[in-house]
């Protein structure tokens, strides 16, 4: 998957999930959801979940880096990436 540029990401609609409808509110919430809910379920299934957990850890690392650097394009991409994880 190639990295999308600013124009492609800003032209796409981002579905925000609560009344806190800013990226600055939603990205930390998605980080917490994946870390505290989704990853715990995959940890419980043992070795079978290890591959998915590796992807989730990488996604969380990218999201934290994007936030630390203030890279809005990377934050949008991370938000969309984290939203794709489900139980």
Structure description:
The protein has 87 residues and is an all-alpha fold. The chain has one domain (22-83). Helices cover 69% and strands 0% of the residues. It has helices spanning 6-11, 23-44, 50-69, 72-83. Helix 2 runs parallel beside helix 4. It starts with 5 loop residues before the first helix and ends with a helix.
Quickly list its features.
87 residues, mainly alpha, 4 helices, globular
Instruction: State Rg.
Output: 13 Å
> Quick one: overall form?
globular
Count of runs of 4 or more consecutive helical residues: 4
**In the residues, how many domains can be counted?**
1
Helix percent reads 55-70%
Class based on secondary structure composition and strand pairing = mainly alpha
- For the termini, the CA-CA separation is 23 Å
Q: Whole-number average pLDDT?
A: 86
- SS strand fraction: under 5%
Order of helices and strands: HHHH
Note the main sheet: none
Which stretches are poorly predicted, pLDDT < 50 over at least 5 residues? none
Which oligomerization state do the chains in this entry correspond to? single chain
List how many beta strands DSSP finds: 0
Reconstruct the topology from this structure.
Blueprint (H helix, E strand, L loop, with lengths): L5 H6 L11 H22 L5 H20 L2 H12 L4
Question: What is the gist of this entry?
Answer:
The protein is mostly helical and 87 residues long.
